Q: What sequence folds into this?
């Protein structure tokens, strides 16, 4: 046995709360030596509270109302501010507001009015550049600032003191360079500013000076204020609401969060949440005695009455404790009450010798004044609130240095005077006392030389609290340490090549920071020539370790600003000016004109981890690694174990007694000897003193092969050490396992990262194990049963030896939450286990949806380390850019309550390559989990470290409620399989491959201030106590108690039942849910207990009750009925589980309910699958319910599927079911429509069976009555018609014929025709044709189509045509062509004779005749009418017509000859999609049309009229191509030469497609100037529509845009009049035209203008439709424009109402479904803006990642070649829509959770292409699989090489939505060996408006 006891003083036991500050008190004054960094202060810094400077007793806090952006006459500001000023005057007669101005009119009377109210006018630059420093133009920024300062100086009676950087509230616009080189300067007129309010300040829950109610009572919890920080924003400090100095020249008054700009971005404009947060921010400021500014704007983001509300709150809540001041008043009171009349800047704008510092170390700022006017020290007494004064002995000059030089912590000062004499003073608590010893030993050292900075600094280098003295000039480098007899020179200087100052005394570019987190001061140096970083070791060796270093090949600025993350931009430029660098939060940042508007978020950055350079290859002590940790804001990190206590930890688990068991994979990666020698260990860690930190190690087992999982079990542990699962036990009491029992064997031995792992307790009493991705055949030693893992995980019961497959295949980390939702992953691909295999196995006949639902792929990560990837293909991203996930493991959830209010439910996983733990927040789409990066971690991580050896593995929720992370702590984490062979051998030889095998750490993280749970010893509890212990919020405690209860004997288990019953009343829903599981596992779940669960208020409890209790339904019918009711639960998980649970019921009601549930949820795959799975138990009842539903494609498919599931039993089932349906209704009731539907379908299933007809005599009688009963509803009458035809073929001809009269609803007439002609009854056909003149268009079309479908009846049609000229003339061209090209020769001959033959067999002659029209100008308006008459039957353009043929709007070739050829000779070139096919069916029909879709079971034809007919394959006799186009020849017979000229003029220009927009639900999003045009908006039909709501969202105040003519349509093409409308709230319009002109049929423009500084309007347009039964399905907006720099219409939301309330605003409007849109540009504008031909770009595409894609292999669609447009790709839209992936290109890439790489191509349109460089391994034939997606049918694309088509057109089908991928395949693709460039060409869009989304191309060789 090995035990290691560690002393309590061991340094590794540290806790760390992430809070940037100076490393020790010895460095609390160093900010005086690093001027112009406005981010140096935080909660631990000395504070300057309001009583110190306010000069007014009782005032505790100050608020400056600072409003931005005034220009011009200021009238709008006067209007906006008047009520605010009036409210302020009620306080003390003043109206203190500060306005930051751009270009105010100095002479306008409003300026004097504002000043007279008490307003101060401050500066904000002339042109408002965001940021001030941007686009390489420093001079412009300086001019913009100084001229604004001078302009404000010309306003009479005004004295501006303050400045605010534009856009500082949401963007990184402040810069140290701007402070140093612009603000510290003086304008040409001699003006300058002395204060700023540009740095944000955020209150956090870690500040104990704040009342807890500020955060605990708010829904956002700890993120109440930080939620307003925008992505990538770093311009803020935390918990420091006090004025501070920047560069000793500028007062900075921080602005507090929220502000109205980021507030409206987060919550929406004028949101009350933002106002409430403003109020609380004022409360917090008063609580901390602070002074902040409140940033707002005179516009729509915040109403003026809302600011009045904030002022009113402050006044009423705090009275005289709060003071409202202007920036000028703050400055004046500072000077008067604190600085003894001395301002920071002298009269000429220079340094006035005033310093603000904490002299006596009491935590409060004091004052030193040293100028010609005074030498004074002022010390603040916080108890007496009084300034005590003492003389200061010298002038404050660049020679004076302050520091901490003794343990008292009080300040000292050193200077070398003008005579070269060094003098020094200490502050003794009352006065400054000269101390000659502080000058001893400094011979040759001068703090200044010739009046300039002499390069001397006081800095605590070794973290002992006392400063060393550093000398750094180009000629002198030395370090001195203070001893008893003065200064002693140390044996080192600052690093060679670096310097503190230049020869002239300027800043040389050296900064100190603790880069490696060891508490000591490291050096960063970067100037215009070279750069470097050096790590401090000790006072003996100094900075002996070099990190980054390099020399520039230029000056490093402008275009030469480096993007290389291994190089540094200058801190100081070559010209000696500040380059805008600063240090904060473990980063070195730059903001200057080289980064502004050029780099992301306007900044460049390097993390401390990146600054380490080569030092990252060295391990750190555990204490240093702890300091390197950065948790999310508001969380702390503690180190609970480190080497030698723990080494190589990969899994942790707590035993019932509280010991922490650890699996140590010491033999990673290739064994202890690199040859496979096992070395895995299981150890137990003990916390002997209960302090939460482990201090004793016990080696329990060793010599295991790659031990990766441990779980305490009974009196031992289970351990996975592939290929085995062991039970290890100590039977001797010595703490070491002496008994090893093999339980399971057979896991595959893949590389150690891919072996079986994980032992997770499920709510069902099984342990779940991950496959590991190496498979194997698992054998249970106890039972002998074998299981071939293949693509599965498994679940086991160790006590019995049971094993079963489980949904997989997981590489590492298969874990569940409290409700039974499981997540897992394989490297970068994470998924939700949406279906468990044991549910799937219940009914093998069900076509199940994907059992794994993707939740993440390759996502960006934001490490702060220098990533040490040894993978041979790794390429580091550019500096400041995120990394890409490549090593995800340990997918899991947090399972306790301590994170509540801090973090939303999330999935966590380790990312060991990137040294972080990532978090994705969970939302639910039905039963499917969706995850996305948390907003407040947009560019950070939940937990990350700058230590590149941090290798997180397992993540567990601990017994105390903290989250624990095991850190394997290795240099190399990659398996050698992925490392270059040569490098691998080198690393084996020098020890790097296993470096860190003797190290390891375990951390825990939790919210700061959270109270951790007390330790519970479950091992000491009896069964009754264990039952009660399940009542905990802690997941570990519940799981452990649950497991332990199953270990007891039955008699003992009974003792736990009362406690478990009691837990059902627990306040913790998760406890209530798990108590039900425990009762079920003990066989003790009673009906009463189950009822409690089924009635629980929490859906998770109801769900688990259904899961564990369905066996009780048959004995307790009320429970079964409750389960039926839960099919309609508000929660989709409950619905799904109810459907599964009812499979155990034998009650008919359950089956009927499942059937109804199936119909209702047929479009929701997982609910549908659950119901179908259970349908096998009650097939009669389920089928009966489905058959009884309205006949739709959905219910028909369900019926077929159910019948298919029944197989041979189907015909046995039909008679009894049909008998039940057809039985005569009771009490004279009528048959319902569903009964007719069901009976019809059942008879169809029986075929032509007289026995089936004999079962429905009563129903037949009633059906005859029903069809003619005008009082019955139309739905039932329509259902009765096909029933009659099935039940009595040809027996009801007279009855059905009688329906063909005008008063009969047209739908009923058409149904009657179809039934009459379903059989080849020529008598009926002749009868119908004889009444031709009386039939309307719809009936005529139905008659002809039915006759053409059967050759016998086609002959009857020709007979009728022979005798009826009208009949022949009324045939349209398409139907004529069907006759003329009929498959029957006799029909063709007769048709030719009757119809005059082909219109013109010589197509060339026809084309020649019409060629002259190509050179003539036509009339577009006449052409539009011709299109509607002749073309709209099959084509849609500009929103008119049917979608049968190609989408003309998508054509890229619009040459008139192209159109003319297509019209007159459509068979010259036929696209496969529109080829005419003829299908013959077993029942004798002949159908013609284009093949719209083919599946394994059916073919769908689309006819010339757009009708779609689905033909089951088993009903097809033949399907043959005619070789001709669906488009008929012969249009020349209907269109004259002159008309053709007009039609071509219209086709050439109309309907040019615009770049498409994103559609989300019922909203069009991301509109901009590229979407000006007219909109055709389609959606699912809404029957009975009475009105429309269009909700418009535009960018902000004073923006305008126009619309012209709104139209509404029913059944796509029938216009519905809009008779009235209103706008809520009302808009302002630019002209006199009113709302009625938006829908009056005219084209006048209707302009929306958002009124300035009022509500953003309009929001909702409400339109009233003319009375009538409208089936609304389309809206047209005939022009949307004005989206230029003056305005942005950003989105349109569509809703429809069926209400009749005369008040339009009172009606209830519902979201439309399945919305889509086509946007078309205006023809004239498009023609005028036609781009000139651009020169062809030069160059050739380069392979993505530098290497060709391999074939065979998988090619991600988004990994197209690298290169510019027209070289590597063509994209019609220059914007990169979608995900932030390959943003340097124009290609539209979509983030997809279901894609293999997390991304895919999206927004594809015709004419686009992408190039892929590939290397084909061998000549051969290849197949290509391509996952694609489309909502509605997609378009066409093909693959080609060098212009040669490889595949032919590939159609993207309707996959069920953009979020659903389905594979399409093409085979027989011939490829030759070698390197090629394959081009993917988008040919045509489909009805979806796009070609479609594509995930990848997978090439495989065809045998």
A:
């Amino acid at each position: 046995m090995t035990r290691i006891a560690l002393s309590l003083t061991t340094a590794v036991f540290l806790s760390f709360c992430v809070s940037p500050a100076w490393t020790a008190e010895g460095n609390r004054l160093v900010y005086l030596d690093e001027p112009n960094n406005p981010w140096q202060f935080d909660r631990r810094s000395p504070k300057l509270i309001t009583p110190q400077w306010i000069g007014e007793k009782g005032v505790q806090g100050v608020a400056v109302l600072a409003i931005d952006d005034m220009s011009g006459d200021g009238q709008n500001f006067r209007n906006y501010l008047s009520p605010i000023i009036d409210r302020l005057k009620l306080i003390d007669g003043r109206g203190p507001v500060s306005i930051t101005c751009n270009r105010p009119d100095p002479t306008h009377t409003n300026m004097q009015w504002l000043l007279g109210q008490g307003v101060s006018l401050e500066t904000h630059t002339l042109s408002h550049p965001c940021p001030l420093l941007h686009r390489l133009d420093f001079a412009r920024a300086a001019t913009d600032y100084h001229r604004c300062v001078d302009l404000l100086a010309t306003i009479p009676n005004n004295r501006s003191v303050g400045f605010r950087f534009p856009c500082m509230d949401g963007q990184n616009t402040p810069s140290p360079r701007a402070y140093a080189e612009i603000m510290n300067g003086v304008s040409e007129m001699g003006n300058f500013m002395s204060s700023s309010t540009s740095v944000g300040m955020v209150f956090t829950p870690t500040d104990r000076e704040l009342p807890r109610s500020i955060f605990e009572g708010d829904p956002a919890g700890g993120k109440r204020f930080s939620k307003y920080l925008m992505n990538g924003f770093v311009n803020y400090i935390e918990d420091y609401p006090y004025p501070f100095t920047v560069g000793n020249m500028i007062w900075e008054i921080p602005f507090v969060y929220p502000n109205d700009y980021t507030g409206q971005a987060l919550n929406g404009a004028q949101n009350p949440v933002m106002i409430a947060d403003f109020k609380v921010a004022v409360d917090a400021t008063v609580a901390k005695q602070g002074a902040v500014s409140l940033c707002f704007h005179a516009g729509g983001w915040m109403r003026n009455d809302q600011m009045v509300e904030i002022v009113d709150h402050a006044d009423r809540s705090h009275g005289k404790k709060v003071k409202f001041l202007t920036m000028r008043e703050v400055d004046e009171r500072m000077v008067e009450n604190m600085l003894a009349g001395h301002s920071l800047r002298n009269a000429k704008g220079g340094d006035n010798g005033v310093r603000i510092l904490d002299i006596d170390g009491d935590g409060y700022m004091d004052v030193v004044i040293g100028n010609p006017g005074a030498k004074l020290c002022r010390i603040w007494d916080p108890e007496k609130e009084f300034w005590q004064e003492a003389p200061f002995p010298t002038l404050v000059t660049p020679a004076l240095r302050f520091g901490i030089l003794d343990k008292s912590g009080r300040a000292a000062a050193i200077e070398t005077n003008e005579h070269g004499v060094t003098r020094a003073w200490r502050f003794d608590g009352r006065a400054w006392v000269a101390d000659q010893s502080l000058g001893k030993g400094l011979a040759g050292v001068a703090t200044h030389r010739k009046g300039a900075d002499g390069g001397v600094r006081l800095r605590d280098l070794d973290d002992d609290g006392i400063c060393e003295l550093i000398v750094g000039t180009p000629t002198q480098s030395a370090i001195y340490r203070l001893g008893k007899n003065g200064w002693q020179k140390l044996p080192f200087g600052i690093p060679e090549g670096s310097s503190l100052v230049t020869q002239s005394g300027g800043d040389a570019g050296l900064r100190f920071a603790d880069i490696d987190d060891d508490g000591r001061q490291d050096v960063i140096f970067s100037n215009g020539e070279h750069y470097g970083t050096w790590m401090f070791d000790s006072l003996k060796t100094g900075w002996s370790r070099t990190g980054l270093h390099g020399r520039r090949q230029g000056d490093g600025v402008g275009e030469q600003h480096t993007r290389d993350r291994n190089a540094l931009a200058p801190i100081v430029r070559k010209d000696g000016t500040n380059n805008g660098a600063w240090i904060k939060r473990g980063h070195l940042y730059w903001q200057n004109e080289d980064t502004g508007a050029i780099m992301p978020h306007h900044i460049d950055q390097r993390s401390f981890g990146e600054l380490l350079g080569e030092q990252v290859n060295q391990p750190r002590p555990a204490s240093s690694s702890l300091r390197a940790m950065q948790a999310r804001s508001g969380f702390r990190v503690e180190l609970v174990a480190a080497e030698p206590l723990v080494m190589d930890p990969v899994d942790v688990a707590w035993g019932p007694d509280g010991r922490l068991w650890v699996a140590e994979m010491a033999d990673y990666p290739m064994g202890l000897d690199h040859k496979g020698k096992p070395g895995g260990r299981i150890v137990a860690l003990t916390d002997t003193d209960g302090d939460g930190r482990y201090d004793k190690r016990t080696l329990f087992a060793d010599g295991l092969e790659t031990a990766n999982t441990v779980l305490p079990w009974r009196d031992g542990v289970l351990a996975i050490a592939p290929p085995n699962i062991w039970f290890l036990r100590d039977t001797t009491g010595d703490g070491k396992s002496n008994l090893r029992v093999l339980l399971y064997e057979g896991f595959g031995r893949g590389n150690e990262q891919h072996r079986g792992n994980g032992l997770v307790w499920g709510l069902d009493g099984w342990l779940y194990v991950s496959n590991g991705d190496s498979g194997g055949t698992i054998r249970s030693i106890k039972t002998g049963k074998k299981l071939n893992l293949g693509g599965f995980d498994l679940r086991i019961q160790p006590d019995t030896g049971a094993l079963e497959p489980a949904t997989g295949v997981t590489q590492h980390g298969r874990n569940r939450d409290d409700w039974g939702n499981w997540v897992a992953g394989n490297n970068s691909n994470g998924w939700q286990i949406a279906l468990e295999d044991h549910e799937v196995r219940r009914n093998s006949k069900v076509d199940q949806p994907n059992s794994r639902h993707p939740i993440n792929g390759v996502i960006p990560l934001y490490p702060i380390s220098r990533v040490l990837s040894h993978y041979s293909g790794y390429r580091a991203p550019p500096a400041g850019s995120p990394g890409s996930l490549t090593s995800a493991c340990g997918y899991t959830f947090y399972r306790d309550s301590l994170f509540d209010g801090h973090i939303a439910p999330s999935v966590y996983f380790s990312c060991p390559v990137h040294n972080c733990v990532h978090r994705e927040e969970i939302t639910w789409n039905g039963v499917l989990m969706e995850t996305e990066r948390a907003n407040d971690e947009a560019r950070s991580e939940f937990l990350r470290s700058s230590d590149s050896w941090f290798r997180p593995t397992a993540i567990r929720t601990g017994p105390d409620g903290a989250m624990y992370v095991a850190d394997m702590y290795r240099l190399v984490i990659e398996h050698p399989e992925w490392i270059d062979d040569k490098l691998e051998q080198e690393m084996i030889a020098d020890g790097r491959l296993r470096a860190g095998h003797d190290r390891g750490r375990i951390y825990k993280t939790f919210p700061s201030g959270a109270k951790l749970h007390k330790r519970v010893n479950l091992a000491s509890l009896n069964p009754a106590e264990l039952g009660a212990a399940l009542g905990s919020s802690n997941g570990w405690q519940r799981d452990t108690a649950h497991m332990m209860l199953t270990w007891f004997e039955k008699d003992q288990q009974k003792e736990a039942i009362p406690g478990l019953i009691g837990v059902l009343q627990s306040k913790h829903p998760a406890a209530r849910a798990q108590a039900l599981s425990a009762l079920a596992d003990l066989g003790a779940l009673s009906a009463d207990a189950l009822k409690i669960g089924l009635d629980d208020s929490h859906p998770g409890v109801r769900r688990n009750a259904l899961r564990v209790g369905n066996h009780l339904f048959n004995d307790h019918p009320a429970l079964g009925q409750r389960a039926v009711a839960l099919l309609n639960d508000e929660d989709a998980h409950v619905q799904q589980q109810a459907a599964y649970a009812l499979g155990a019921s034998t009650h008919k009601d359950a089956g009927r309910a499942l059937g109804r549930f199936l119909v209702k949820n047929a479009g929701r795959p997982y609910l549908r699958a659950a119901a179908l799975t259970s349908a096998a138990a009650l097939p009669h009842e389920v089928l009966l319910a489905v058959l009884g539903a309205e006949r739709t494609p959905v219910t028909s498919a369900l019926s077929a599927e159910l019948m298919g599931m029944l197989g041979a039993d189907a015909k046995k089932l039909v008679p009894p079911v049909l008998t039940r349906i057809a039985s005569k209704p009771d009490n004279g009731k009528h048959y319902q429509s569903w009964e007719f539907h069901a009976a019809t379908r059942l008879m169809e299933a029986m075929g032509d069976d007289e026995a089936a007809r004999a079962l429905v005599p009563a129903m037949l009688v009633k059906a005859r009555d029903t069809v003619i009963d005008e009082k019955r509803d139309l739905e039932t009458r329509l259902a009765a018609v096909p029933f009659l035809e099935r039940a009595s073929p040809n027996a009801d001809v007279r009855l059905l014929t009688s329906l063909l009269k005008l008063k009969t609803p047209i739908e009923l007439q058409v149904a009657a025709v179809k039934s009459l002609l379903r059989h080849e009854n020529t008598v009926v056909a002749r009868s119908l044709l004889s009444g031709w003149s009386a039939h309307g268009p719809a009936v005529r079309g139905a008659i002809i189509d039915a006759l053409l479908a059967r050759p016998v009846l086609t002959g009857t049609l020709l007979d009728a045509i022979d005798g009826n000229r009208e009949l022949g003339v009324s045939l349209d061209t398409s139907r004529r062509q069907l006759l003329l090209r009929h498959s029957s020769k006799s029909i063709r001959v007769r048709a030719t004779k009757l119809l005059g033959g082909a219109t013109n067999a010589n197509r060339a002659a026809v084309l020649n005749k019409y060629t002259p029209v190509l050179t003539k100008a036509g009339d577009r308006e006449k052409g539009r009418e011709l299109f509607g008459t002749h073309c709209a039957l099959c084509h849609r353009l500009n929103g008119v017509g049917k979608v049968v043929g190609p989408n003309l709007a998508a054509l890229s070739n619009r040459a008139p000859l192209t159109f003319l050829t297509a019209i007159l000779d459509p068979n010259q070139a036929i696209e496969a999609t529109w080829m005419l096919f003829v299908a013959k069916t077993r029942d004798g029909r002949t159908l013609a049309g284009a093949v719209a879709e083919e599946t394994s079971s059916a073919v769908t034809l689309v006819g010339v009229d757009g009708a779609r007919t689905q033909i089951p394959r088993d009903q097809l006799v033949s399907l043959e191509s005619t070789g001709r186009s669906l488009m008929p020849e012969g249009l020349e017979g209907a269109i004259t030469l002159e008309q053709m000229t007009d039609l071509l003029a219209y086709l050439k220009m109309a309907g040019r497609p615009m770049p498409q927009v994103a559609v989300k639900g019922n909203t069009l999003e991301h509109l901009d100037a590229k979407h000006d045009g007219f909109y055709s908006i389609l959606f699912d039909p809404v029957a009975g529509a009475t009105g429309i709501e269009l909700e418009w969202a535009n960018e902000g105040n004073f923006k305008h845009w126009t619309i012209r003519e709104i139209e509404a349509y029913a059944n796509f093409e029938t216009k519905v009049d809009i008779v009235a409308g209103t706008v809520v709230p009302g808009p302002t319009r630019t002209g006199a035209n009113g709302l009625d002109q938006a829908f009056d049929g005219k084209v006048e423009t209707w302009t929306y203008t958002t009124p300035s500084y009022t509500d953003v309007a309009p929001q909702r347009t409400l339109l009233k439709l003319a009375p009538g039964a409208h089936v609304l399905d389309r809206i047209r907006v005939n022009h949307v424009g004005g989206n230029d720099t003056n305005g942005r219409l950003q989105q349109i939301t569509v809703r429809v109402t069926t209400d009749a309330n005369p008040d339009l605003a009172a009606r209830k409007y519902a979201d439309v479904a399945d919305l889509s849109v086509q946007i078309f540009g205006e023809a004239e504008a498009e023609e005028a803006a036609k781009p000139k031909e651009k020169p062809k770009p030069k160059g050739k595409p380069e392979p993505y990642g530098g290497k060709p894609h391999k074939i065979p292999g998988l090619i991600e669609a988004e990994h197209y070649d690298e290169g510019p447009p027209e070289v590597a790709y063509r994209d019609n839209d220059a914007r990169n829509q979608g995900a932030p992936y390959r943003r340097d290109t124009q290609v539209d890439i979509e983030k997809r959770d279901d894609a293999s790489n997390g991304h895919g191509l999206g927004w594809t349109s015709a004419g686009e292409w992408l190039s892929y460089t590939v290397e084909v391994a061998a000549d051969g034939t290849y197949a290509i699989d391509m996952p694609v997606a489309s909502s509605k049918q997609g378009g066409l694309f093909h693959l080609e090489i060098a212009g040669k088509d490889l595949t032919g057109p590939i159609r993207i089908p309707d996959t069920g939505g953009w979020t659903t991928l389905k594979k399409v395949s093409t085979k027989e693709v011939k490829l030759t060996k070698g390197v090629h460039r394959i081009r993917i060409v988008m040919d045509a869009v489909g009805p979806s408006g796009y070609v479609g989304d594509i995930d990848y191309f997978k090439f495989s060789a065809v045998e």
Notes: The radius of gyration is 40 Å. The longest strand covers residues 1857-1871.
